[in-house]
Write a structure and sequence with these properties.
The protein is mainly alpha-helical. It contains 17 helices and no strands. The longest helix has 28 residues.
Length: about 350
């Protein structure tokens, strides 16, 4: 594979726009329209957008580890952690520094738990967070993955497939248990969302085989889209059945099997994540209208800004009275401006340092 992987920035662009739209809709910052009821499963599906980010992260990190091992016959964990630190920490802690200033000025009020969990990347284990820091749970999950996965992969790469599949199964069992015995503090942790990252890893490990399988199979793109849509819709259907009185054997069976259905289907299910992984490989390799769309300059640009956009969108989508008075276009402009400042003043200068530790 080339150093620059096509389509990934385009996919990131779509995901961040979906996450932003999700938060706007959740806080009634955009109009509610019955026409959008079914389209909203994609257009305003924040959890699905984060899931795609996770699969991309697992795929990209494992691809880089594989390439490093092929070139140098070794994986430098020290250089890996330095590269990740340079990539993630500056923009992240710049946001927290701005939050500190905002709090001094009285614009926000973060608790000690908010600060401690944010500063230590442990937000995934704290559900009662302020809105301004609640989105940092996903970065907490990724950070734990970045710490653990390179060690596992470098030490046991010979058994990479077996270990990855075993961990995916373990996460799904954990998720089913959480649906059976609700544990709110575990909902958005690596123990319930880690399979999406691991599926990205698995697709990277078997990248060449998968590419050979999908070669010239252009119909797969539409098939994957349809299956992905079906997975999300079926999950919604089962969810709406849940509160209904159980009057027959079929409904009773569905109710009993809901933990299994929810773990496999829907926004965060195993089947959904597998379809996302396949969609990523197809998007990279099959030259179609979809490929051209993902690689448009505007999509590439938004994709490059996606990390800063994700960090800052929460500031301007909060359910605050002064934000509700502002037009959506202005709020979007504020998100974009803040992201650009973060990217050009913080991210980009630090990214230049990574060349000293092998490109990542």
């Amino acid at each position: 594979m080339k150093n620059h992987i096509p389509s990934l920035n385009g996919l990131r662009a779509i995901c961040i726009l979906v996450v932003i739209a999700y938060h706007f809709q959740a806080h009634r910052l955009i109009f509610q329209n019955s026409t959008l009821k079914y389209a909203s499963f994609f257009l305003f599906n924040g959890p699905l957008g984060v899931g795609v980010f996770f699969v991309i992260s697992g795929f990209l990190i494992t691809t880089l580890l594989i390439k490093e091992k092929e070139v140098s016959h070794n994986i430098s964990l020290k250089n890996f952690y330095i590269r990740r630190t340079i990539r993630i920490f500056p923009a992240y802690y710049f946001l927290l520094f701005c939050y500190f200033v905002f709090q001094l000025l009285g614009y926000i009020n973060l608790s000690r738990v908010d600060w401690l969990s944010s500063l230590t990347y442990t937000k995934q284990f704290f559900t009662n967070s302020s809105y301004q820091t609640s989105h940092l749970w996903s970065l907490s999950v990724e950070e734990m993955f970045y710490i653990l996965w390179p060690v596992i992969f470098s030490k046991f790469s010979k058994y990479g497939t077996l270990i990855t599949i075993s961990l995916i199964v373990a996460v799904n069992v954990s998720r089913m248990m959480q649906y059976s015995y609700p544990m709110p503090t575990m909902t958005n942790t690596i123990f319930s969302r880690g399979d999406s990252l691991l599926i990205g890893c698995l697709f990277a490990i078997h990248y060449n085989k998968i590419v050979a399988f999908i070669a010239q199979k252009r119909y797969l793109l539409m098939l994957v889209f349809l299956l992905l849509l079906s997975s999300i819709y079926l999950s919604k259907y089962l969810y709406h059945l849940a509160p209904m009185p159980i009057t027959n054997i079929k409904l009773r069976l569905i109710n009993q099997q809901q933990p299994l259905f929810y773990s496999l289907l829907g926004n965060t299910g195993l089947i959904t994540n597998l379809l996302i992984g396949l969609l990523i490989i197809i998007s990279i390799n099959i030259k179609s209208i979809w490929f051209k769309f993902l690689n448009l300059p505007i999509m590439e640009y938004i994709g490059k800004l996606s990390y800063s956009l994700y960090l800052w969108q929460q500031v301007f989508t909060a359910d605050n009275s002064y934000l509700l008075k502002l037009p959506v276009v202005l709020l979007l402009a504020c998100i974009f401006i803040a992201a650009c400042l973060s990217y050009y003043l913080i991210e980009k200068p630090f990214l230049k340092l990574r060349s000293n530790f092998i490109r990542a």
